[in-house]
């Protein structure tokens, strides 16, 4: 059955392309945050361990929301590590940095995801896709707030 939601197929595909990038950023940030949760040490262990857990749980749910929006637009969502690696702008961390570097990397990751969401909002707005723009605005706000909270730890 053809999709008839008031957004042309080419526009849905363009929006999904941007959403796929956000999905890759979200999933990459999820993995990094979860790894840091497992591997945090030092005097801030308890507070950062708990904070990272809250953040990776939020990112896990966000990835599902973004992927389901892609599917709502009748486009298949990327779902492999290799696809995400090609799409994400977030640098992988294969080591275990100290707590300050962990926080720095997560600030950077959330800022990257905020930029990705902001660009996707422009595409969704141009196509008249208020549903996607609304979801993206929520994601943008979440990434900006998390970056602020993490950045505050470094002062």
UniProtKB/TrEMBL annotation:
InterPro entries noted in UniProt: DPS_DNA-bd, DPS_DNA-bd_CS, Ferritin-like, Ferritin-like_SF, Ferritin_DPS_dom
Keywords in alphabetical order: DNA-binding
Residue ranges occupied by any Ferritin/DPS domain in the UniProt entry: 17-154
Entry's Gene Ontology molecular function annotations: DNA binding; ferric iron binding; oxidoreductase activity, acting on metal ions
Family in the record: Belongs to the Dps family.
Name of the protein described by the UniProt record: Starvation-inducible DNA-binding protein
């Amino acid at each position: 059955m053809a999709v008839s939601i008031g957004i042309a197929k080419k526009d849905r595909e363009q929006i999904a392309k941007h959403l796929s990038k956000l999905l890759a950023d979200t999933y990459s940030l999820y993995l990094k945050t979860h790894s840091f949760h497992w591997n945090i040490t030092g005097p801030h262990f308890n507070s950062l361990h708990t904070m990272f857990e809250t953040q990776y749980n939020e990112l896990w749910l966000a990835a599902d929301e973004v992927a389901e929006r892609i599917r709502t637009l009748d486009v298949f969502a990327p779902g492999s590590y290799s696809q995400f690696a090609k799409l994400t702008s977030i640098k992988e961390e294969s080591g275990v940095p100290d707590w300050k570097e962990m926080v720095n990397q997560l600030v950077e990751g959330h800022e990257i995801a905020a930029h990705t969401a902001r660009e996707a909002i422009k595409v969704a707005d141009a196509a008249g896709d208020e549903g996607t723009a609304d979801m993206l605005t929520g994601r943008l706000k979440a990434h900006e707030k998390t970056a602020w909270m993490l950045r505050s730890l470094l002062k």
